[in-house]
Specification:
The protein is mainly alpha-helical. The protein has one domain. Helix content is about 60%, strand content about 5%. The protein has 9 helices and 4 strands; from the N terminus they run αααααββαααββα. The protein is globular. The chain starts with 10 loop residues before the first helix and ends in a 9-residue tail after the last helix.
Amino acid sequence: MAKKYKGKLSFQQLSDGINLCLENAQALVKEARLLLEHQHFARATTLAIVAMEELGKVHILLAMAQIHPKNQKLWSVKWGMFYGHQKKTLSSFIDLIPDSFPVGSRIATSTRFAPEYVSLQEDLRKISLYVDYLAEKQTWVSPLLIKREEASGIVESAEKAVQRLSAIRDTGIFAEKALQIQHEETCFLTENLLKNGQLDLGEARKIAGAAPEAVRRYFCRLLKEADVRFPDDMKINGVNWREFVGIPGTGEKA
């Protein structure tokens, strides 16, 4: 078996990987829908869960674009997430939270509910594939026990998450130039992340204070320097994108 890669990637390589993961997620939810329509509920569940993992990989690759030049060991950490089922599922949870939520609310929601979501998804992934014996309940479980309602809910959630990230991709935000701008404006957030095994509280507060302005600069530069266009109704941090970046107007690129 080939050794898994854990090194650096260029912005173009990150962009290519993001697009391939998203394309695969789109194919997986289409196949999950076909299986659901033909009453193959267990395997429809499996593919929907795998589609969410592919979305998680998109977010992990985006995070790689933020790695600071002075903190290169983060590449290994991010690759570990990229190859782990539960880390990929955890990274995809953000796509299930409405975009109308401000960043603080999205983070709070993720912190509160994501661990339980990851546990449930991992259990379902296994149950949808394998027969197993649950000692605590003294009973067998089988993929054939998964019902239409359960499978349908999982497939629909995955479809909505894929649609959300596809719409974001269509703005151009995952292109090479856009990822380079993201790195230049936000890599300071990762300079000391996990450097000494943990993040100093003072450093964490400093980052939290500087992050909003860095994100605003990032979006302003996207509009000016990259081939990026946001739809009129797109929200950033719970508000319309024009309000967020401080640009008046009704549809023209800044």
